Structures are given as C-alpha cells and as structure tokens.
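Protocol step 4 of 6: record predicted structures for both targets in the notebook before any analysis. Target 1:
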Amino acid sequence: MTDLLYSETENDLRAAVRSLVAARGDTTALAARAEAGSPGDPRLWTSLATEMGAAGLLVPEKLGGQGASHREAAVVLEELGRGVVAAPYLTSSVAATQTLLALDTETEAVAALLGALAEGRRTAVLAVPLSTAPDGPLPDGRARVTGVADAATADVLLVLRADGLYAVEAAEAVVEPLTPLDLTRPLAAVAATDGGTRLADAAGGEAAVRRGLLAGAGLLASEQLGLAEWCLEETVRHTAERHQFNRPVGSFQALKHRMAQLWLEVVSARAAARAAADALATDSADAAVSVAVAQAYCSRVAVHAAEECVQLHGGIGMTWEHPAHLYLKRAKADEIAFGAPGRHKETLAALVDLRAP
C-alpha cells in the first residue's frame, strides 16, 4: 500500500528549505525586485541549488545528483510555494531535468548538461509556453514561442524541432522578456530556430518533453499546496488578532465556516499532491491519472485560498505592501500552468473512460 506520509528525510529537507526561505525569502524585497523586473535572488538560488543540493534531487548520483525522487522535490516545491519564491526550480530542476532524464543519459551531451543542472551551475528550460499541458499540442521550434517561463535567466533552452530535440545556448537565441501577471515567474518569447546540440530524434524528443511536462504538472500541485497552506495559516493568524466589536473577527461564525471549508480543501489538496508526487517517483502506470487529478483539484484550491486571504485581510489585503497579492497572482498564473484545470479534467475523463454527458 502506498504511504503518502512524509518520511523523516523529507521532514528534515522541509526544515532546511523553510529555514533558508525564512532567512532570505523577504516578500517585501521580492515585491520590489519583481516590480523592477528581476524577481530572483541569486544568493537564495545558490544556497538552495548548489549548497543544499536541491537542484540535483531527481538526478542519479552517477550523473552528479542526489539520487532522490519526486517526493523530495515535491517537498522543496511546497516550501517554495509557501514563500512564493522566485526561483527556476520547477522549470529547470524538475521539468527540464526530467526531460533530459527521459533521454539516453549515456550520451555525453545529455550527461554533461544533467551534471551542470544538478550542481546548480546552469539552468535550463523547455522552450514551450508555460500553459502547455502534458498531452497538449507542442509548439514548432522553428517558430517564435511565447510565454516561456524563466527563459530570460536560463542558460540553456531545450527546443523541440521537426527533426529532434536540441539544447540551444540562450545566448544564441533571441529571448524577449514579457510582462506576466505573476511578476515572480518571468515569461519571455523565444526564437531559437537553428543551431544547438541535437540530443534526440523527433520521436524520442517529443516523448521526453511530454515526460518533463508531466513531472512539471505533477509537482506544480505541491507548489500550489504550499501556497494554499500559507494563505490559510496567515488568514487564521490575522483574523485571530484583528478585533471588531471588542472581539477577534475570526470568532465570527461566518468567517469560521469559510476558514473551516478552506482547511478541508487544503487537506484534500495535500493528499492529491502527495499521490501525484509518489506516482511520479515510483513511475506508476497511473501517474498520468494522479497528475490530472492533482492539477484539476489543487489549482482551484490555491486560487480559492489566495482569494480568501486577500478578502479576509480586509483593506490591508488590497495593499502592495502586504504579500497577499503576490500569492494571488502566483495562484492565478499557476492555475493555467502545464494545462488549465478543465484540460486536466478532460484528460482524466479520457484516461478512466469517463464520458461526458
């Protein structure tokens, strides 16, 4: 029977990442950097990816990684979601890394790039729109691709063309930053029509990219879980301290009901996200089903939690100084990342042969 409880190792990893984010993940500074167009903190990324070794969790030890699994990577993403951290972990250390792991890792170019990603020396991103679902249409790498997450700061672009999958140095491509809704996860338009190192043929490259997108969608649920947990905890804390009519507003029955409902949703989201991470870690035959369930559910929970956080904070929740807006924007952007909830419901229906009325 699958055990979805957190192991001692996972709890230790959580404590380490939470401590790092608490020490360096200042949301006030994040908002200022995001407004200036450079949300990422290089020092935090170096500590997380290189010093802590989190960037190499999915990479086998023989290739320079930690030899862990998607469960451990999911724990990292939970904490990054709680701190709404601007870092290319999901795009580089999960989606791009999983794509490379789905290729022939005995190939020198693949092994070298995996080693660099695992050590945190380089970052890579899939040259596909962030909204691309695992089973959705893939863009033609010979054309300009818009909405590519973290492309502006990546070192390498993984580009799928008609004749195969290529690793293209970002310096050799045209990368045009865009203005996203979520300023903590930059988007860009990418044109990498030629050049690069061929990593796989067309069929192998497409299968690898879809595997990377599946891992990205599955572990995105853990980021959404962490985000929702923070929003709930912060809302409970605020409503316990905020007084009206000489009593905490959190004692009003209507608000109790709203927060209790949100708690139930967050608990259910944790089960769905953990199931997806475990299915990916064990390479389960039902991985696609678990990922579709997790994304269809966790996306909506994260948005609901962020909306309640803003609303139940009253006037302060509407201010730029309070971080609630960062969480709401991340939740709304994550809702369509790697496929919208409706797309995942359609995927789930097809996988379990559940026909729509």
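Target 2:
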Amino acid sequence: MELLDENIQSDVYRSMLEMIAKLGFSSYSTTIMTTIILSILLVIILYAIDFLLRKVLLLVLTNFIAKSKTKIDDLLIKNRVLQFATHIVPVIVAKEAIPLIFKGFPNWIKIAMQITDVALVIAVGLLFNAIFKTFRDFLRGNKSFSDKPIDSYLQVMNILVFFVCGILIFSIATGKSPITFLVSLGAASAVLMLVFKDSILGFVASIQVSMNDMVRVGDWIEMTKYGADGTVTEINLGTVKVQNFDKTITTIPTYALVSDSFRNYRGMQNAGGRRIKRSINIKMNSIRFLTEEEIEELKKNPNVTRFYCR
C-alpha cells in the first residue's frame, strides 16, 4: 500500500505550485522552487520520523528489554540492531515521496529512486551486520562456543553480505541484472583470488583449526618463528592474536597455524603438571658397585631404606 495516494500527491504538488506562482516567478522557476521546498520538507519529515523511532520506540523497547531476563535482547541493544532497523523506515518513506517531489522533473525521478534503492540496500546490509554481531556475542557467552573461532565465521558472513550488497548496488546503478554482473565477475576471478588471497587462506585455515581442534582461545602456544609465546586471545579470519607473558601482543596469520609448526601446551595444562628435561653430566670413572660397608651405612638412612631391596 502506498503511503500517499496519487490524488493526494497531485493536490499537494498543485497547491504548492500555485502558492509559489502567486509570488510572480516564471513557470520554470516556480517548478524549481516547488521541488526545492518539497525536498526540504521531506528531509525534515524523514529526520522527524527517524528521531521519533529512535527516541520514542527504542526508549519503550529498551525499558521492556531491561526488565527481561534473557540476554540476547540486551545484545540487540548493545549492537544497535533496533537502531539500524529504524533507519529503513525513512528510506521507504523517501522512496514513496520521490514521485511527488520531482513531479516537475520526470527525468530526475529515476536517478532519485536509484539513490534511495542504494540507501535501502546499505541500510539492510548494516542491519544484517549488526544481527551477526549479536549472534557472535551470544555464542561467546555459551561455554560450548567460548573457545571456537567465532570471529572468523562472522567475518565470512560480513564479506558475503557486503558482496551481495555490492552486486545489488551495481545492478541498481547500471540497470542490469545481477546475473550479468556475476557472469562478468567469473572472468575476473583470477584477480579476485589475488585480492582476497589472505581472506580465503584464513577462512580455510580457521575451519581446519576448529575442526581438528588445533588451537582454542585461551590456549598457551609457542611459535618461535613469529616470536609468540603466550595465551591466544582472539582467532579471526586473517590473524590470531597471542598475548605474550610480558603483555605484548603478537599477531600471527591464521593460515600459518596450518602451514607452520607450533607448540600447544594445552595437554600439559589439562594434565595438571609439567615434565622438565635437564642434562646431568656423569663421569664414567666414578661409576662402580657399592661395597658391603657402604651398603650397611646407607641402610641407616630411612629415606634410602624405604626404596632399598636386596
């Protein structure tokens, strides 16, 4: 259902046109002035709608969420999911009002509609990005996922969303089907592989690291090649952050955990102990059998007698 009926649009535009024409402007100047004034009024209305949705609606929902015992609704507020959702409404209103504003310039309607369509795609993309962040924070609070590389999967989803948004924006700007863009994209796949090489390697490596349980967040690892010796604090698509024992941060490429060798002390920590290897030099000439007198003397030592067996 359209926000403004065509008859209402015509009446509003005609009334504004007649009002400005009474001031003595020419026909062309009257049309331009009408378009400018209606554009300013639209901006004010859109700002008012966005302000009311953010301040009034979000205030009501925030108070309701504050009383809720569930955690995910708090994360929705934290990651501004509702705020990004409210930005979609003014864009839809603008899309409906454009035919009214540019009624005197029909050639401009198509360009203005393309701009609003692009804005709508961006708003929806930012909304999905905020939703993914909410799920990431929710899974981080779950013990089953606390040591998994959730950031890697989030970044892959973000890349996918921005890729789809990019295709839609290209389709809107050129007026061509998204399939046409994908077909031409196949010819440039070699360039894309080069540009996103690190992202692809990091994504594959993060899956291997997770499935093979090679590294978890919180593990103590040692990687001499990169000067890393400390606790893993973050595993994302491109890098792994290790906090060394001197509180410095070492950044390691994610795919290096698969291609290079490193030491993980998780087994030692889970065992509750640590084996230490030390070298002891023994002179060969000092080794001999004990005499009977030495044996009798050692028997007097309770620590030796306990392990002595003849």
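Step 5 preliminary note on target 2. The CA atoms of residues 65 and 73 lie 6 Å apart. The beta strands are 220-223, 228-235, 239-244, 249-253, 263-264.
Proceed to step 6 after PI sign-off.
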